[in-house]
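Fold it.
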Amino acid sequence: MTARREKFRVGHVLFEVDGGPGTFGLFAAEADEPKHRRPLFTGFVERGMGDQLRRLADRFDELEAGQE
């Protein structure tokens, strides 16, 4: 069985998550050349990352609210 890769775009960054082995990659979402479509960073999903990303999302919400 092949693990499904999920993609989440956040601005100009694309997160690609592979649920099988619990890995992820960060890509430039708007890369126009194939050589720039390689991962900028890859890693393993570690305990606590969800909380860290939620804190970042909360901060982004605050910054967005200040732009209104």
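Residues 5-65 form one domain.
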